[in-house]
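Hey L., structure's done. Input below.
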Amino acid sequence: MVVELGDCNIKLCHSRGCPDDCPHWRRVPGFPIFGVGQPSEAGFAKIAEKVPKEKTIWFNMRQEPVAYVGGQPVTPRKTVNPHDNIEIPGKVPDMDALEGKLVDTLEGRKCGEGNIDIFRDKEDADNPMDREEVKEPCKLENLKSFTKMLGDLSAGPIEGMTVIRVPILEEKALPEECFDIIVKALAEENPAKTQCIFSSQLGKGRTTLGMTVASIVKAVQMSTKLNKMVETGIGSRDWADGIIKKTFEELAASEDLKDSYLMGEFDVIKELLEKFPATKVGKVLADKMIDICGVPPEGTGIQNLRKCIITTKYKYDAATEDRQAVWKKMIINFIERYFYIICFATYAKEHGPEGFKKTFVEWVNENSGLREMIANGKDKLEWSRKVDQGAVDEIHALINGANVKEKLGEVVTKLYKISHHTYGDMPRGTIKDTLMRKLTCKTLMEVLPADILGKVKKELEEKKLSSDFETVVGLVVAA
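Output:
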């Protein structure tokens, strides 16, 4: 077996149980594409009621096995890394077999009272390092695999539904073959009728990626049909171009369009557009589909796969140093994922009109340099903010003289102006306020005269005080 389940604890798929039976259920505007987090057992019947009676494909975007205990989904997690989904190094059949093995393992762990230990997070927390696990006994009843649940759904409420596993890595767009799994499933289908349901643990990153890929495929298929209608004289060129532009290209008016980072203009993306010019039109399609699969008002989802890069960077900036490593890894993965989505949209525009006869992996192989480009460029980001050193030097000269305490108000005002300028690109909110206060405090410590700084540090150390802005200012006044 590819993963030894004996090394794993069993954990609820959702931090404290399913938030509802169909977590984060939504539909992409204009497409028969749906997304959901791991449903409860009761949620499957509700999903059947939510979708029209048309041909349906369920894409399971998880590598890791899932079972149901008492109606709640659970999954194995490594005891040494309980907050990350396990990665399965084998093929899809190996993953399917592991799910059966999980059911057997759960049966084998049942104690004399018929219970098993199931772990969950005590509270929700954005950063995995802030999560605390608790262990609770749970009655092992109504045990089923996720595969069995989907099979029952296909046999009854959504009759004939096809189930496909897409073993995507969490936060990433890898393996590349996952794009081709979705393409192969949809290439011969009617883009307006064949329904897609994408699911993952939370229904966030992996689900949204699947929805975005499917939207790109369907957008190209629909555009191809419109172009053929023009060729046969059914519609005019202006008519078809107008629909294509509005539906598949034009972004909704927003202040976000003025923000280069929210628009994904990172160094490696700019390099991609420069060295592979065809990706410029690919980015247009990718950005439109990302937006309609993303958060309101453009979409109905829970993550925008482009904007999440810089919003996660803001969290990185505001985090303590020991917490930054998690955010940094996530940001790098998000940049790589966005890079691949643009590449895929470019491929789809080139090869979709002829029926996707060439695979995406083949296309990447032919465009040598793409893999090396993203490998070398995905971490090229300004990991620390550059402060106006000239302005800092002026404050340093001001405070290093007589009457330091009398000048403190003026100094703090000038420091806040520096902080406001440094983070001027960020939207208003708690994260921006936290960053400005941290930077103001840090810069104040840097410009304090040596004697006062020594006294402040001594007080902080001896009394074990936190070096927040208010505390430091208070110690300066008392020094």
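The radius of gyration is 26 Å. DSSP finds 17 helices and eleven strands in the chain.

-- N.
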